[in-house]
C-alpha cells in the first residue's frame, strides 16, 4: 500500500486524495462520511456485520464482521491509511492495538471518556463547563447518599451502553426508588450508574465542533425536538440570546482543545429559562442533529470530520440558510415517499437500509427556509409524523 501522506512545511502530516479511510461501523453516519470522503478522492473501507450495509453501498470495500472482531479491525487497519468510527461503543483497546499499523488521529482518550458517563461528566467539569449536578453510584447506599445531595427529581443512568434514553430512569419520589430496589432484589442487580439532577430545561440544543488536532471550528447552535427519546426535528439556528450562542461556542472550543480533537464532536445541551447552557452528553462523531449542515452550511459535519482526520485545514463553517431537519423513521417511509412528488423543497436522504422497522432511522428530510416556524408547521401538517404527535 503506497503511503500517500505528505509533510507540508514540516508541520502537519496531511492525507492526500487516493489514500484509504477505514470506518468502523457501516450505518448512516458512516455512509455520509464515506460520501464526503469519496468526492474528496479518498478510498473508503468499512467494517460492519451486515452485508451491503448503508456505508458498504458507497464504499470501495467492506469487511463483513462484528465491530469488536479484533482480526477484522486489524484487517481494516492494514488496508487503511487512517482509521475512524461512526459510533462511540468501539473497543478502544482494539484501536490501540493497531496504532502502529495505521493513523488513528482521534486517539482513544476521546472514546474512553465518551463511553463512560462518569468520566465524561468529570472531563466536562474539569474543562470549566457546567453539567447537571451528579454523583457516581454503584449500590443502593451510594444512591441514598447521592439523593440526599441531589434530591428528587433526579435521573439515574447506567455509566455505559445507554443511548437515546435507554438505560435511564427518572426518580421522582421514594416510590420510584422502591421500584428499582424490588427489581434489583429480583435479580436485576445494580449496574455502575450515575445519578444526575433533573434539569428543568426550556429546550434541548446541540453544537458541533470539528478539529484537525490543532485548530477548531464550531457550527451554529441548533434546537432539537425529541419524541419518545429519539430526535425528531432539528431547527437551525436555535433562537437564542447572544450570551447563549457565545457560551455554546466557547465551551465547544474548550472541550475540543481538551481532547486535541481531530474530526467532529457533537455536544448535546440543555438551555434553561434563565439562559444557562448545561452540557448533557458528548458524541465523538458526526451527529443526527448535524445533518442539516449538508445543505445549510458552507462545510458540512461529514466534510469537516474527514478533513479533520486527514489533517486538512478547516474553514469556519457559515450557515447559508436557516433549515429544518426531520427524521424519517420506519413508519414514516411510506407516507413521506408518497409526498416527494409534491414537495420539491424537500431534500430527501435515504440511508439504503434493507429492513424497514418501526422507530428505525431510515432517512431524513432537510428544508431550507426563511421561516423555520412555518416550515415546522407545514411538515407537521402533512400528517406523516402524526404517530409522534399522539405518543408525545
Ligand atoms: P441521554 O441518553 O443522556 O441523551 O438522555 C436522553 C434524554 O433524556 C435527553 O435528551 C433529555 O430529554 C432527557 N434527560 C437526560 N438527562 C436529563 C437530566 N439530567 N435532566 C432532564 N432531562 C434529562
Stated plainly, the CATH topology of the largest domain is called D-amino Acid Aminotransferase, Chain A, domain 1
What would you give as the CATH superfamily of the largest domain?
ATP-grasp fold, B domain
Architecture of the largest domain, according to CATH? 2-Layer Sandwich
Report the radius of gyration as a whole number of Å. 21 Å
CATH class category name of the largest domain: Alpha Beta
Please report the distance between the alpha carbons of the first and last residues: 52 Å
**Tell me, what's the shape?**
globular
Low-pLDDT residue spans? 1-12
Bound small molecules, by name, code or SMILES, are: adenosine monophosphate
Number of domains: 3
Give a structural overview.
The chain is of the alpha+beta class and 392 residues long. The protein contains 13 helices and 19 strands. The strands form four sheets. Strands 11, 12, 13, 14, 15, 16, 17, 18 and 19 form a nine-stranded antiparallel β-sheet that branches. The protein has a four-stranded parallel β-sheet with strand order 5-4-3-6, with helices on both faces. It has a four-stranded antiparallel β-sheet with strand order 7-10-8-9, with helices on both faces. Helix 1 links the parallel strand 3 and strand 4. The chain is globular, with a radius of gyration of 21 Å. The N terminus is likely disordered. Bound molecules: adenosine monophosphate. The site of adenosine monophosphate (AMP) has 15 residues, from strand 16.
Amino acid at each position: 500500500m503506497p503511503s500517500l501522506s505528505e509533510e507540508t512545511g514540516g508541520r502537519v502530516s496531511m492525507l492526500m486524495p487516493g489514500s484509504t479511510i477505514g470506518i468502523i461501523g457501516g450505518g448512516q453516519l458512516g455512509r455520509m462520511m464515506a460520501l464526503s470522503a469519496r468526492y474528496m478522492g479518498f478510498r473508503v473501507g468499512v467494517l460492519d456485520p451486515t452485508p451491503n450495509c448503508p456505508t458498504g453501498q458507497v464504499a470501495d470495500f467492506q469487511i463483513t464482521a462484528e465491530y469488536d472482531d479484533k482480526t477484522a479491525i486489524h484487517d481494516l487497519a492494514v488496508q487503511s491509511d487512517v482509521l475512524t468510527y461512526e459510533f462511540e461503543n468501539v473497543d478502544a483497546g482494539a484501536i490501540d492495538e493497531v496504532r502502529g499499523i495505521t493513523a488513528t488521529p482521534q486517539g482513544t482518550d476521546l472514546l474512553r471518556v465518551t463511553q463512560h458517563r462518569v468520566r465524561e461528566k468529570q472531563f466536562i467539569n474539569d474543562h470549566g463547563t457546567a453539567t447537571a449536578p451528579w454523583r457516581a453510584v454503584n449500590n443502593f447506599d451510594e444512591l441514598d447518599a447521592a439523593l440526599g445531595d441531589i434530591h428528587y427529581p433526579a435521573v439515574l443512568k447506567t455509566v455505559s451502553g445507554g443511548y437515546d434514553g435507554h438505560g435511564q430512569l427518572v426518580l421522582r419520589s421514594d416510590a420510584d426508588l422502591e421500584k428499582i430496589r424490588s427489581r434489583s432484589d429480583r435479580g436485576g442487580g445494580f449496574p455502575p450508574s450515575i445519578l444526575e439532577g433533573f434539569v428543568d430545561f426550556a429546550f434541548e440544543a446541540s453544537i458541533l465542533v470539528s478539529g484537525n488536532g490543532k485548530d477548531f471550528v464550531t457550527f451554529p447552535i441548533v434546537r432539537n425536538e425529541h419524541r419518545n427519546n429519539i430526535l425528531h426535528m432539528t431547527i437551525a439556528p436555535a433562537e437564542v440570546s447572544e450570551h447563549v450562542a457565545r457560551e455554546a461556542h466557547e465551551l465547544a472550543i474548550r472541550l475540543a482543545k481538551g481532547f486535541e480533537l481531530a474530526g467532529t464532536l457533537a455536544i448535546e445541551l440543555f438551555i434553561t429559562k434563565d439562559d444557562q447552557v448545561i452540557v448533557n452528553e458528548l458524541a465523538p462523531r458526526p451527529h443526527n442533529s448535524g445533518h442539516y449542515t449538508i445543505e445549510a452550511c458552507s462545510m458540512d459535519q461529514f466534510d469537516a470530520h474527514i478533513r479533520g482526520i486527514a489533517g486538512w485545514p478547516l474553514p469556519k463553517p457559515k450557515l447559508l440558510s436557516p433549515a429544518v431537519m426531520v427524521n424519517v423513521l420506519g413508519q414514516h417511509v411510506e407516507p413521506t415517499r408518497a409526498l416527494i412528488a409534491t414537495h420539491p423543497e424537500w431534500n430527501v436522504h435515504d440511508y439504503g437500509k434493507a429492513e424497514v422497522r418501526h422507530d428505525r432511522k431510515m432517512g431524513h428530510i432537510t428544508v431550507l427556509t426563511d421561516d423555520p416556524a412555518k416550515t415546522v408547521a407545514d411538515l407537521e401538517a402533512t400528517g406523516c409524523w402524526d404517530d409522534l404527535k399522539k405518543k408525545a
